[in-house]
Structure to design on (112 residues):
């Protein structure tokens, strides 16, 4: 796939994202994680670390990590993604709201 889309790296990143979403919905969380990580790396390089597209992939990766009980990594990513999405996109944006939802889940999980 990456070879076929070598001249269209933004499209290749989007294809990885969609494949990751499909794997996530099928319960193949490790496969989803791999595609989301690829998407994040590509989009961060091409569009910037705090672009809406990169942040969307980070939110998706948080879901895949949570499903695999990789909670420490998911929580760390959640905190940085929430802060970036809030600052770059505003709290009314869907990506910010998804990151906030993950953040709330971690607060609930870590309650004492």
């Amino acid at each position: 796939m990456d070879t076929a889309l070598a001249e269209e790296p933004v499209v290749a990143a989007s294809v990885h994202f969609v494949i990751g979403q499909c794997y996530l919905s099928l319960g193949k969380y490790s496969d989803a994680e791999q595609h989301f990580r690829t998407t994040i790396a590509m989009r961060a390089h091409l569009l910037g670390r705090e672009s809406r597209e990169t942040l969307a992939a980070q939110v998706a990766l948080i879901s895949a990590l949570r499903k695999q009980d990789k909670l420490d990594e998911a929580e760390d990513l959640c905190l940085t993604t929430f802060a970036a999405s809030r600052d770059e996109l505003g709290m009314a944006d869907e990506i910010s709201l998804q990151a906030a939802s993950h953040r709330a889940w971690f607060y609930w999980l870590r309650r004492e």
Remarks:
- The mean pLDDT is 95.
- Residues 29-47 form the longest helix (19 residues).
- The radius of gyration is 14 Å.
- The chain is about 80% helix and 0% strand.
